[in-house]
Specification:
- By secondary structure, the chain is of the alpha+beta class.
- About 45% of the residues lie in helices and about 10% in strands.
Length: about 350
């Protein structure tokens, strides 16, 4: 083995256990990882059942203790399986309790259900002044309304406005990392978004899906766009694959591409040629792009890295929408959730400042 220094390990043969891998798997695309793993598996077949001999060289009492550690690890794995089974059952139980709430929320937003006064009343707080009753006003002689006041859209709104318009667009716009990915056309399209649902993936505790429900709109014919993320690690950081609905764009309405005009120089005295072509552009709806399918058609390494970055961005946004935005939608709609995030950051800054002062003392 090249580069090995002299010492006690100089004569130890190379094995999968002591041979370093210089390539960082975290920087590889799914396609690269699959190719690398296949090649590595083929190479390592010769080592099946073979080790460096270190374990067998240890004294019998030490080997006996090692067997004990293996038994301990087996017991640990059994407990993990039990934990995951109970966790899945508990999540299923509480999802059953959440779902009726989300169904009712959806009806209120759409205007198909008008809540009773009892369902709207709550303890008044400084953050929610709308919940507090208006203070009594002194009786005075009423002035006739001015022409402007009579035509005010604010006065007309309570009787003409159905449900809560643009609820999900406003909710998504409250989170800066998501809002900055929304183009003006995206926002216009998302006005027709009527609900977002989180979907549980059977037998995959860390996996999750999202369903975006739309009213008829000018951009695509789908009524539901879905995205499912299949996670294969307990920590939830390694993505196996993702599945997306194909967006059925109406003619000329694809928000993920733009048409540009390019002028090519003519050859041998010919006139320049003007052509139009489509090129990708930033859009929230790239969330539904099938990246794995695109990777199969790309050979350029830089483009593959770009797809990997897009894959990771999709997972980040998808997880945030599923775990934070959907269950806390009203707090994102009102902006309270963003204020909570700011308060948490201020607390962390204060904590860091206090630690620095303590160090100085």
């Amino acid at each position: 083995m090249k580069g090995r220094t002299a010492g006690p390990l100089a004569d130890v043969p190379d094995t999968p256990q002591n041979t370093p891998v210089s390539t960082s798997l975290h920087s590889l695309t799914d396609k690269d990882v699959f190719s690398f793993a296949s090649a590595l598996e083929e190479k390592l077949q010769v080592f099946v059942g073979v080790n460096s001999g270190y374990i067998k060289s240890l004294p019998p009492p030490v080997q006996r203790r090692i067997r004990c550690l293996k038994q301990i690890h087996t017991q640990y794995e059994d407990i993990v399986k039990q934990y995951e089974a109970e966790k899945a059952a508990l999540e299923a139980k509480y999802n059953g309790l959440y779902n009726p709430l989300w169904t009712k929320r959806s009806k209120v937003i759409a205007g198909t259900y008008e809540p009773t006064d009892a369902e709207c009343d709550g303890p008044a707080t400084e953050e929610d002044p709308a919940a507090a009753p208006e203070p009594a006003q002194e009786t005075t002689k009423e002035e006739p309304p001015t022409e402007e006041a009579a035509e005010s859209p604010i006065d007309a709104a309570p009787t003409s406005m159905v449900g809560i318009p643009d609820f999900w667009l406003t909710t998504m716009s409250s989170y800066p990392p998501l809002s900055q990915r929304l183009s003006d056309e995206d926002r216009e399209c998302l006005k027709s978004l009527v609900d977002i649902k989180t979907i549980v993936v059977p037998d995959e505790p860390e996996s999750f899906g999202l369903e975006f429900h739309f009213a008829p709109n000018d951009y695509f014919t789908n009524t539901v766009l879905s995205k499912t993320f299949h996670i294969i690690t307990r920590a939830g950081d390694q993505l196996s694959h993702a599945e997306s609905t194909k967006v059925e764009w109406k003619e000329g309405k694809n928000l993920t591409v733009e048409t540009v005009t390019v002028t090519k120089k003519g050859r041998k005295g010919r006139k320049p040629k003007t052509i139009t072509k489509e090129q990708p552009k930033e859009s929230f709806f790239k969330l539904f792009k099938d990246i794995e399918e695109s990777a199969e058609e790309i050979e350029d390494e830089d483009e593959l890295e770009g797809l990997q970055d897009m894959f990771e961005e999709q997972l980040y946004l998808g997880r945030f929408i599923a775990k934070q935005m959907v269950p806390n939608a009203i707090r994102w709609f009102t902006g309270e959730a963003m204020e909570d995030d700011s308060d948490d950051e201020d607390d962390e800054d204060d904590s860091d400042y206090s630690e620095e002062e303590s160090d100085d003392d």
